[in-house]
Amino acid sequence: MEVCDLTAAILFTAFGACTLVPYIFFRCKRKLMTGLLLKIPTSAFFLLTTSAAALACPAELFEQYKFLFFGVIIGQIFGLMGDFWLDMKDMMPPHHDPLVFAGFTSFFIGHCFFIAGLFATYGADLKTWLITLGTGVVFGVFVALAEKPMKLKYGKFKAIAAGYSGIFGMSLAASLLTYFATKQPQALVMNIGLLVFLLSDLFLSGTYFGEGKDRSVDYALNYICYYGGQFTIALSLLAVAA
C-alpha cells in the first residue's frame, strides 16, 4: 500500500515549534500584541500539519478516512478561533466576558467535530455512545463540584466550564474506545494528544479561575501542553497509512 509523504507535515510541526518558543517568551513577559502576532502562525501550523497529512494521503486512503480528516481539521479550526478569542480577552478588558464565552464555546464545538470524525469513520454502537456520554457527565459534574477543593472560582463561567469539561471527557472516551475497538494507531495517538491537551486545561483553569496560579511558569506550561496536544492530534493522522 502506498503511504503518506510525511515531509510537509513534519516541516510544519518544526516551524510551529520554532514560533512557539518566542511566543511563550513574549506572552509570559505580558507583551500581548507581540505574543498575539506569534500565536497566529503557531496556531496555524498545527492546522497546516493536519492539512498536509490529509493532502499527502493517497486517494483511496483519504476516501476511507475522510470523515476523520474533516473532523480533526474543522475541530482544529474552531480550536484556532477559541485560541484567538481567549488571547484577545487580555487586550480588550471591557469585552473580557464575551471573549471568554466565545473561546470556551469554540473549543466545545471543536471537540464535537473530533468525536463526530472518530465515530463517523470507525462507527459506534449503543454501548460506546453510552460510555462516551457517561464519561462526559462525570467530567462535567466533577468540574462543577470540585470548584472549592481545587481552590477555583468559576463565577459566571461555571456552566460553560462544566459543559466544556463534559465534551472534553467525551472526546477522551471516544478516542480511547475507538482504539480498543479497532486497534487503529491514530486513535491511540489522538488520545495521547487529548491527554496532553487536558493538562493544558488544568493549568489554564488555574490561571483563569485560581488565585496565585498566574505565574509565568503556569502560563508557559499551559502553552507547551496546549500546543503539544494540538500537534500530537495533528500528527496522529500520519498513522493512517501505517
Provide a descriptive summary of the structure in words.
- With 242 residues, this protein is mainly alpha-helical.
- It has one domain.
- It is 81% helix and 0% strand.
- The protein has helices at 7-28, 32-56, 59-88, 96-122, 126-145, 158-182, 185-209, 216-236.
Give a quick set of tags describing it.
mainly alpha, globular, 8 helices, 242 residues
Q: Overall mean pLDDT score?
A: 88
- Largest sheet at a glance? none
Q: Could you state the order of secondary-structure elements as H and E?
A: HHHHHHHH
Assign an overall shape: globular
CA-based gyration radius:
18 Å
Distance between the termini: 9 Å
**Low-pLDDT segments, ≥5 res:** none
Total of domains: 1
| Percentage of residues in strands | under 5%
How many helices? The count is 8
Number of strands: 0
Helix fraction bin: over 70%
Condensed summary:
This protein has 242 residues and is an all-alpha fold.
